[in-house]
């Protein structure tokens, strides 16, 4: 999982729940993005990313879990925040397709 101190990078409201978005890294240095309930206690909500260490990625890209608990959340986060953009590329995980997103460049 993550091997460094998480950094808060944003917030989003999803189905009435105030969520904070954090960035960390997986072993190997790839971005890990997860959400926690806002407020004291840092209650985990979900992990937005998955780590596919044998799949190639650019430094600012990451694989997104868009199924099960993230089926509605992932597109919501993409649409409602200005943090990420979809590359239009997805890779086969063996069971599902994982889209590749990247961090939006500051303009």
Quick rundown:
The protein has 107 residues and is mostly beta strands. 7% of the residues lie in helices and 48% in strands.
Structure, described:
- The protein has one helix at 73-80, and strands at residues 7-14, 17-25, 31-37, 43-47, 49-50, 61-64, 84-92, 97-103.
- It is mainly β and 107 residues long.
- It has one domain.
- A hairpin with a 2-residue loop joins strand 1 (7-14) and strand 2.
- The model has no long low-confidence stretch (mean pLDDT 93).
Summarize this structure as a short list of keywords or feature phrases.
single chain, 107 residues, mainly beta, four-stranded antiparallel β-sheet
Q: Biggest β-sheet: count, sense, barrel?
A: 4 strands, antiparallel
- Extract low-pLDDT stretches: none
Principal-axis shape: globular
Terminal-residue CA separation? 31 Å
Quaternary class: single chain
Percentage of β-strand residues: over 45%
Q: What order do the SSEs take from the amino end to the carboxyl end, as H and E?
A: EEEEEEHEE
Instruction: Briefly note the structural class of the backbone.
Output: mainly beta
Overall pLDDT level: 93
> In angstroms, what is the radius of gyration?
13 Å
- Overall tally of structural domains: 1
Q: DSSP helix count?
A: 1
Query: In order across it, which strands form the biggest sheet?
Result: 1-2-3-4
Work out the helicity level: under 10%
Strand element count: 8
């Amino acid at each position: 999982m993550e091997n460094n101190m998480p950094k808060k990078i944003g917030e989003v409201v999803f189905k009435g729940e105030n969520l904070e978005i954090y960035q960390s890294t997986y072993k190997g240095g790839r971005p890990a993005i997860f959400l926690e309930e806002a407020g004291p206690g840092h209650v985990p909500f979900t992990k937005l990313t998955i780590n596919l260490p044998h799949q190639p990625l650019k430094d600012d890209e990451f694989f997104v879990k868009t199924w099960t608990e993230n089926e509605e959340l992932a597109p919501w986060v993409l649409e409602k925040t200005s943090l990420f953009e979809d590359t239009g590329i997805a890779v086969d995980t063996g069971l599902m397709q994982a889209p590749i997103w990247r961090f939006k460049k500051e303009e």
